[in-house]
Write a structure and sequence with these properties.
It is built from seven helices and twelve strands. It is α/β, with parallel strands linked by helices. It has a single domain, classed as 3-Layer(aba) Sandwich (Rossmann fold), CATH 3.40.50. The longest helix is centred in the C-terminal third of the chain and has 18 residues.
């Protein structure tokens, strides 16, 4: 079977139990989920639903208590911390709500960082190309404090892109942005998914943001309660939303 035919994410009976003394907290209670290559999926759920735990497991930031996780067909359920770090750097790009940029270096150097860790030689060229893809080709030498919130998030997206990952994980990527900047960021994700076929999984608490994706996974009490296909996703830039509510609804 070719890599293109293998789902990017396959979760089978995933559980996660946190033990605090004699108390057990069941964060995930048996998750089965398949996300195919080229999907744009969002994960929603109330506080305590398990969505952050699920995101950490999908991102190889944590391991399940039980169950199997195949990433690109490779079982990563029981890898060591060093092996998980190597997988993260090679296969997964992360975008966080708080950008997580180094403040004292340029946008270019921030985007180069994953390539430095990977020992890549042509990192400057690849970082410039990634910044151009997110519309920041004229801002490569600017520091984060010289950029708007939306531009900083675009730098973070470029950093996630630069390793050519199998998967981009975005955790509340519009949470610290105003509506206009949020729409710009969503447009970039939609363009990357539609034009480059990049698989994107996004955690959000905003229904209007989730409606920009093609499938919504609803979590509650550590279980997937339903999966919602979105036949006509909102097109970023053509709609207006304020505080997660579609104007005109």
């Amino acid at each position: 079977m070719m890599v293109e035919d293998v789902p990017v994410i396959q979760l089978k009976s995933i559980t996660k139990i946190y033990r605090m003394g004699k108390v057990e907290v069941h964060a995930l209670r048996g998750i089965d989920l398949v996300i195919n290559r080229g999907e744009f999926t969002s994960i929603m759920g109330p506080s305590g639903s398990g969505k952050s735990t699920l995101m950490h497991i999908i991102g190889c930031l944590d391991q399940p208590t039980d169950g199997t996780y195949l990433l690109d067909g490779e079982d990563v359920s029981s890898l060591s911390d060093d092996q998980l770090a190597e997988i993260r750097n090679r296969k997964i790009g992360f975008v966080f709500q708080n950008f997580n940029l180094l403040p004292r270096v340029s946008a270019l150097h921030n985007v180069e960082l994953p390539l430095i860790y990977a020992g890549v030689s042509n990192r400057k060229e690849r970082a410039i190309e990634a910044l151009k893809k997110v519309g920041l080709g004229d801002r490569i030498n600017h520091h984060p404090n010289e950029l708007s919130g939306g531009q900083r998030q675009r730098v973070a997206i470029a950093r996630a892109l630069v390793t050519n990952p199998s998967l981009i994980l975005a955790d509340e990527p519009t949470g610290n942005l105003d509506s206009k900047a949020g729409a710009e960021v969503m447009k970039i994700f939609q363009d990357l998914n539609r034009e480059l076929g990049i698989t994107v999984v996004m955690v959000t608490h905003e229904p209007a943001i989730a409606k920009h994706t093609r499938r919504i996974i609803h979590l509650k009490d550590g279980l997937i309660t339903r999966e919602e296909e979105v036949p006509n996703p909102l097109v970023a830039g053509e709609d207006i939303y304020l505080n997660g509510v579609e104007v005109g609804e």
